[in-house]
Hints:
Layout lengths: L14 E6 L6 H8 L1 E7 L2 E6 L4 E9 L2 E9 L16 E7 L2 E6 L4 E2 L12 E2 L8 E3 L2 E2 L8 H6 L19 E8 L2 E8 L5 E10 L9 E11 L4 E7 L6 E6 L8 E6 L16 E3 L1 E7 L12 E10 L2 E9 L3 H4 L5 E9 L2
Parallel strand pairs: 1-5, 15-19
Antiparallel strand pairs: 1-23, 2-3, 3-4, 4-5, 6-7, 7-10, 8-9, 10-11, 12-13, 13-14, 14-15, 16-17, 17-18, 18-20, 21-22, 22-23
Amino acid sequence: xxxxxxxxxxxVPTHQRLLDLSPAKDTxxxxxxxxxxxxxxxxxxxxxxxxxGRSLYRLDRLGDHHYGNLSAVxxxxxxxxxxxxxxxxxxxxxxxxxxxxxxxxxxxxxxxKYDATAGSLKLHDRQSRNxxxxxxLRLAFDAAEGRDALTQALASDRxxxxxxxxPSKDNGLDIEGIAARGERVLVGLRGPxxxxxxxxxxxxxxxxxxxxxxxxxxxxxxxxxxxxxxAVRDLAVVPGSDDVLVLAGPTMDLAGPCYLHRWRNAxxxxxxxxxxxxxxxxxxxxxxxxxxxxxxxGQGSDKPEGLDVQRRGDxxxxxxxxxxxxxxxIGAKGTSTRLDGYGLPD
Length: 346
């Protein structure tokens, strides 16, 4: 891996959070524990998103770094999802901005996993319309009519459009992170990665102050990040700044290292994008949090998927949630799991 990320020592968590999700026999909580993909803290509540189902989940703060009393918020009740026939919501990013809780689905096509007994690689399943969501709890794009507004906009981008018809694990479109401030929303992509360049969509939304149920996509641009060949797995605004923390990890279904990068002035004023060519923006690798070795089947792999950043006094803490957790993280009983907290340089 190119410098300077290669020089970072493997980070050791300075904190952990215990999440009591449910009694052991609760199937929904078990699925959430195994498929955590997004998180954000808001006051005394921790919000969680997962790869499965069509719900958003909340936990109450029970003590310092201890959360419980799991409850589910059905996205369909807020117009953010359809029924079971419309597939999983596949929430991959959560962000807070004032009293708004933002969420984004993967917007991706899926291909069924390879089955050695079948002897062939199956075509992808039909697209999940529920995964085409970008919005907040009371406002959302309407994905019921074929393509959603975001996908329509991406279809006009000559660099991204070819990847819309490719399943996510084949380097097709796959959204996995969100950060928000006012009418501006940054959306990170796990795929595609273009010759080692990671992509972030910079969106300007209308309709936030209206009474209607639908947002409008007023403007968008693609921004290009140098993450040493890695993709975006989640985003989080650094409190009190225009900076954004980037959880960088492997694209597609690859095993690889994961880093935390600081993207300076990501939400600051931006000049006009060039008409042709690509302006490559640099980030600062600040922590190496996973060595990149693949997990063992049935034993978990601890894939970093969700990110939240908070300020505690003079210290910044980055909280990371893990998909496919290892046994040491989830314990022998119940459906609890643990988040890792990392102290960050300011």
